[in-house]
């Protein structure tokens, strides 16, 4: 559990930092959910709304960075607090990029809605569900300092990779059978890649949680360890 401090302002700022990270995470998760909904429902107005709302994600990114820098400058934290604050700085970068992926999805939705729907949407909503769960659990792991949950998120990345491969094979088959489907299939491949990247960012967050709590890096390992 987070350590309490005698400096009340410092303690309040650390608490605010956790809350702001969760707020930003909740916003980008909602962006993902609505981006996929705009695809499935062919809702161009919703896609436009998500694109416009990206400025809220960017604003939170800047505000959290400013808070982290203030904490570092005024309190010169050491050890666990230092790892917590520097991890928060990195997490906001991943969350901001997840927000960008939601915007990119919506841009593809606007293009796809110019043509008839290529196929029923089955794999993409499944991928979105997994990616959102990974994001939610990675942030829970951050706030609770839960290494086991962080490692679970890292292992779950294999699930979304498998669905991505299945989606790509199906879309390539469409393109080979009918060249008229190529533009739509390629855009759906992009959507799949955006969701895969969102899962990668959630994995990044979880890897940073492990470092924050244990002071050990698990990045670039061939496999996710069962424990740290």
Describe what is shown at a glance.
With 228 residues, the protein is mostly helical.
Architecture overview:
The chain is an all-alpha fold. The chain has helices at 8-40, 44-52, 54-75, 79-112, 123-144, 147-177, 182-214. It has one domain (8-214): Up-down Bundle (Methane Monooxygenase Hydroxylase, Chain G, domain 1), CATH 1.20.58. The protein is 81% helix and 0% strand. The model is unreliable at 1-5 (pLDDT under 50).
CATH C-level class: Mainly Alpha
Range of strand content: under 5%
Number of domains: 1
| CATH fold-level assignment | Methane Monooxygenase Hydroxylase, Chain G, domain 1
Name given to the CATH architecture:
Up-down Bundle
Number of helices: 7
